[in-house]
Amino acid sequence: MNNTNNKRRRILEANRLCSNVCDRCKSGTDVTQMSLFNTQMCCSECIEKERAHPKFPYARNCELNALEEGDYNFPGIGLPDNLRPPK
Predict the structure, then answer these.
(1) Is 21 helix (H, G, I), strand (E, B) or coil?
(2) Is the separation of the CB atoms in 40 and 79 below 8 Å?
(3) CA-to-CA distance for 15 and 33, rounded, in angstroms?
(4) What is the pLDDT along the chain (87 residues), one digit of tens a residue?
(5) Could you tell me which residues come within 8 angstroms of residue 50 by beta carbon, excluding any fewer than 6 positions away?
(6) For the chain, which residues make up each domain, given as ranges?
(7) What does DSSP assign to residue 23?
(8) pTM value?
(9) DSSP H or E run through 60
């Protein structure tokens, strides 16, 4: 019985650490992807909006250049104001 409780406790801790909420729109989601504009983990809907943004190709190129230079912690170019959720 103790082994079952330990397993359950580990699963609950893992679920707490792996948020199922989009950092940008705060909606619940099963899948997240990191933004190319910043370090937010976003739902598919927010990523689709991001990909349609005119600055997306520039953000993607900046990310690629940073990776090629060995910068694996590139924070992005910054989130454009018109992609920010209303307050």
Answers:
(1) strand
(2) yes
(3) 17
(4) 566 766 776 666 655 556 689 999 999 998 899 999 999 999 999 999 999 999 999 999 999 999 999 999 999 999 999 999 887
(5) 35, 36, 37, 42, 56, 83
(6) 2-83
(7) T
(8) 0.74
(9) helix 56-68
